[in-house]
């Protein structure tokens, strides 16, 4: 028999248990259950608080990463613009120098 069946059998097979002692047993079981339920509830509360804290930290990190990425992107864009400007100036100088020294075929 399982533990629950043994307990049930002992309650049924024990006629010496009074109504008051059964009520006390039920009260004790109820108290134990409520205590365990309170512990589970407290643990869920702690886990919920930890999850909230973790979400805040993730949001903060996400914001920092976005700011750093935007700064990096801006820096790369400035560098690309500077390179394009330098290319344009170089092409312009090349064209001007070709005007000064025309090639003859």
Describe what this molecule looks like in 3D.
Residues 86-105 are annotated as: Disordered. Residues 86-98 have a biased composition (Low complexity). The protein starts with a helix and ends in a 5-residue tail after the last helix. With 105 residues, the chain is mainly α. It has one domain. The model has no long low-confidence stretch (mean pLDDT 87). 88% of the residues lie in helices and 0% in strands. The chain is rod-shaped. The longest helix has 82 residues, at 19-100. It has helices at 3-12, 19-100. The chain has two helices and no strands.
The class by helix and strand makeup works out as mainly alpha
CA-based shape: rod-shaped
Number of domains: 1
Strand percent estimate: under 5%
State the order of secondary-structure elements, H for helix, E for strand: HH
What Rg do the Cα atoms give? 41 Å
Distance between the termini: 111 Å
Average per-residue pLDDT, rounded, comes to: 87
Question: pLDDT under 50 segments (min length 5)?
Answer: none
User: Roughly how much helix do the residues carry, as a percent range?
Assistant: over 70%
Count of DSSP strands: 0
Count of alpha and pi helical runs: 2
Quickly describe the structure.
With 105 residues, the chain is an all-alpha fold. It is built from two helices and no strands. Residues 86-105 are annotated as: Disordered.
Question: How do the strands and helices of this protein lay out in sequence?
Answer:
Layout: H1 3-12, H2 19-100
List keywords for this structure.
single chain; 105 residues; mainly alpha
């Amino acid at each position: 028999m399982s533990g629950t069946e043994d307990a049930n059998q002992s309650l049924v097979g024990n006629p010496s248990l009074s109504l008051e002692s059964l009520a006390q047993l039920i009260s004790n079981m109820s108290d134990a259950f409520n205590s365990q339920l309170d512990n589970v509830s407290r643990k869920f509360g702690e886990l919920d608080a930890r999850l909230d804290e973790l979400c805040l930290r993730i949001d903060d990190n996400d914001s920092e990463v976005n700011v750093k990425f935007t700064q990096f992107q801006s820096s790369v864009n400035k560098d690309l613009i500077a390179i394009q400007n330098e290319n344009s100036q170089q092409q312009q100088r090349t064209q001007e120098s070709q005007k000064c020294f025309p090639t003859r075929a």
